[in-house]
Write a structure and sequence with these properties.
The chain is an all-alpha fold and about 550 residues long. It folds into two domains: about 300 residues, no CATH class; about 210 residues, Up-down Bundle (Methane Monooxygenase Hydroxylase, Chain G, domain 1). It contains 22 helices and no strands.
């Protein structure tokens, strides 16, 4: 077979493997994303409990990187401690290794069953949850199919004169083998895919253990780089967790490479009879050892990352705001004018998000400069709201069709709701933060955790609402409407727990009772205003009731 055809088949098989791993992860996130995020956020049992939660999440998502990004996001909002998040990410690395161990079994006989079942669930059912389960099953089938394709594609390589020389060179230069695979793993953004690829090459007799083991250590080092790279633009609190994981996992990989270089160890018989089995089991053993040996050092490593990535307080900037997206030259073309108003609404939503994001810090330890800057942002929200109303009023003076007139009213209503959100922040939450700071009081530990949870949820729903505004996607609109019920439940549960703390005589709860209830109520109201963007979309598709009242009999 021509070398080009061999490489083409191998490249296609590897890309199918990468896509299939991503397919399983996205299906799991879409079907059970909220439950998975809540599971990580509410992990109990200290560092071992957090590591256990990380193991489970990585198995479900088939990605330690996804768990790392989740943990980083929670750390940024203050809902997850740095040491706890680092322990969860160590556990996620072990969970990812368990996924590799499971997929490395010879499950090729299941491929037709998985493809048939997954395609049937995805194509023949309308329920979103069932379709995503079908996506997951299809993804697992494609992973197994890609591994079979890799084995078939690499068979001609055994007769190649170039490949044995290349593998022989890498076997004699473990540092190069380590570095090359670390970079490839980072580029592929999937340690699961890389280790499965190495195992497939070893199973085909192409990769001896002398080259495979340094490559395996390189894959683990590269896996630590992925989350560091993906979180590079986040705040320091978020970046510390991936950096701490890289320090622990990277140090273990480096020490393993040094030991391999100095001692040239032989694989014990209990790791397996074949090279590919030994490789996969060694990967699992390595990550288990990192968890066991690394957990006692999590606190020290987290303190090191705090030193390496200190927080520099910076008030929100009210300068350099983007200019208005409203273009009055489009008024003669209603569709363009409405698109212009929608872009302005998106800019307005970005300002609202900028006001919301630092609210956890403001409520915890307010500063005069920060509060003044947030009030400046509220002035911008008011200005954009006024501009949108005047623009749409001018548009409505023209002869609009029924559909365009309806869209203009919907956009005006959402602009009013966004302006109301700005008022809630500026006239309710900021004065409350000022009073709390002036009286030097603190929320109870449990109450503060509840506030942080609500704040993180509202922030996520702000982004979701802007996506719904732009895309008009029915599934996203439905998910946003479901978040209203979730927020209602969280607000009710927080209220009940707060009353229980008052009955127990919790001093902090007694001192901040009214403030706690007001903050919780404000976040719930903000969320309800965001959800209104989904109502017209769901009404058009017949997915929302006109009234919650039951019909009289």
């Amino acid at each position: 077979m021509h070398p080009f055809i061999v490489l083409l088949n191998l490249a296609a098989a590897v890309m199918l493997l990468l896509w299939a791993v991503r397919m399983v992860r996205t299906g799991m996130e879409r079907a059970y994303g909220s439950a998975l995020r809540d599971g990580l956020r509410r992990a109990r049992g200290g560092l071992p409990g957090a590591a256990g939660a990380g193991v489970v999440l990585a198995i479900l998502l088939q990605s330690a990187t996804a768990v790392g990004v989740l943990a980083a996001g929670f750390a940024a909002s203050g809902m997850l401690g740095g040491a706890t998040g680092l322990a969860a990410l160590l556990g996620a690395d072990l969970g990812s290794a368990l996924v590799v161990r499971i997929l490395a079994f010879d499950l090729s006989a299941l491929i037709p069953v998985l493809l048939l079942t997954g395609a049937t669930l995805f194509l023949k059912f309308e329920a979103r949850q069932i379709r995503q389960i079908g996506r997951i099953v299809l993804g697992i089938g494609f992973i197994l199919l890609s591994l079979t394709m890799i084995g078939t594609a690499t068979e001609p390589m055994r007769e190649s004169a170039v490949l044995p020389a290349t593998i022989g060179y890498l076997a004699g230069d473990p540092l190069t083998a380590f570095a090359v695979v670390a970079l490839l793993t980072w580029g592929m953004h999937s340690s699961v895919a890389m280790v499965l690829l190495l195992a497939a090459l070893a199973q085909g007799g192409i990769l001896p253990m002398a080259a495979a083991l340094p490559m395996l250590l390189g894959a683990n080092f590269g896996a630590g780089l992925i989350a560091v790279w993906l979180t590079r633009g986040l705040v320091p609190e978020a970046r510390r967790i991936p950096l701490g994981n890289l320090i622990l996992r990277g140090s273990a990989a480096g020490l393993g490479l040094l030991a391999f270089w100095l001692t040239d160890p032989q694989m014990p018989a209990w790791l397996g009879a074949r090279t590919d089995v030994q490789l996969v089991n060694a990967h699992l053993l390595f990550n288990a050892a990192v968890v066991v040996l690394g957990l006692p050092f999590v606190g020290a490593v987290h303190r090191l990352t705090v030193t390496l990535l200190p927080v520099t307080p910076e008030a929100p900037q009210t300068e350099r705001r983007p200019r208005s997206a409203l273009d009055r030259t489009t008024l003669a073309l209603p569709s363009l004018a409405l698109a212009s108003a929608k872009r302005e609404l998106l800019l307005m939503g970005e300002v609202i998000e900028e006001m919301l994001r630092p609210m956890s810090d403001v409520l915890d330890s307010p500063s005069e400069g920060q509060i003044a800057a947030l009030r400046g942002l509220d002035d911008e929200v008011d200005r954009r709201h006024s501009d949108i109303k005047l623009f749409i009023t001018a548009l409505n003076r023209r002869d609009l069709g029924t559909e365009d007139a309806k869209r203009s009213i919907e956009l005006t209503d959402f602009a009013i709701n966004l302006e109301h959100i700005g008022d809630i922040i500026a006239k309710t939450l900021l004065p409350l933060a000022e009073k709390k700071g002036a009286e030097n009081r603190r929320f109870s530990e449990e109450g503060w955790h509840e506030i942080l949870e609500l704040h993180a949820r509202v922030l996520a729903n702000t982004q979701l609402a802007m996506n719904v505004l732009i895309s008009g996607d029915i599934a996203s609109a439905r998910h946003l409407m479901q978040e209203k019920e979730v927020m209602r439940r969280l607000e009710r549960e927080s209220h009940e727990r707060h009353l229980e703390r008052l009955q127990r005589g919790n001093a902090d709860s007694l001192a901040t009772s009214n403030w706690h209830l007001e903050v919780v109520r404000a976040f719930k109201e903000i969320n309800s205003l965001l959800v209104t963007v989904a109502v017209p979309i769901l009404e058009e598709s017949g997915m929302i009731l006109k009234s919650r009242l039951a019909e009289p009999r």
